[in-house]
Amino acid sequence: MFSKAIVRRPCHCLIHGLTTSNLGHPDYKKALEQHHAYVNALETCGLEVLVLEADENFPDSTFVEDTALLTPHCAIITNPGAPTRKGEIHKMKKVVSRFYSVIEEIKGPGTIEAGDIMKVGSHYYIGLSGRTNEKGAHQVIDILNKYGMSGSTIKVEKVLHLKTGTTYLENNNLLVSGEFINQPQFSHLNRIEIPDDESYAVNCIWINNKVIIAAGFPITKQKIMDLGYTVIETDMSEFQKLDGGLTCLSLRF
Ligand code: CIR
Hints:
alpha/beta
């Protein structure tokens, strides 16, 4: 169960955020409205949400998930692989220290962005992607082991982060798309396949038995409702333009 979340309002320079999509620049006003609706969705799931003010120094700073991994036993401040995002961690470390007394940090040359980390029980799958390297992943695994948790690595070849292509909905249910559909490390889970034309929607958030999903993906919505979850839809069009999904916009703990 989660009780809190941390989010950061999008800054004006969001429109210059990193992207591989060809969907055009986000509309700032619309992004702010969508962010507001996202916070409402988290609150509807029962979370107390800390909304941090926009940070104009970092275009991608609204994607707070990448800067920290918040586990039940410790917080781990990451070392983002994207050079323009490395500085985001300093403010986040201060914020996280309000809630955690045990804080670990990933050191270069290890890099990791927590969009590459997916928790399944006390095990953490870590994607080796363009942003997360072996050294970063192994530092995280060593820290997890120190606190009685575990981790393993999975290659991410076609998408930005591990959770761009798969998310866990608890109760053994895993949404999978593309390169993760036949991933042997997931074979013990109940895998729900999301078709290619809805692959953006595979990035969902489970919170206390409700699932927040991106609006406009009817097949995904139906599959999740069929599993018995209450579904909350929210429009993500402006964040999709920057390769950002639902999980990226918050730290939940
Ligand atoms: C980036 O490329 O870093 C941002 N535009 C999007 C980050 C998405 N974060 C995530 O998947 N956890």
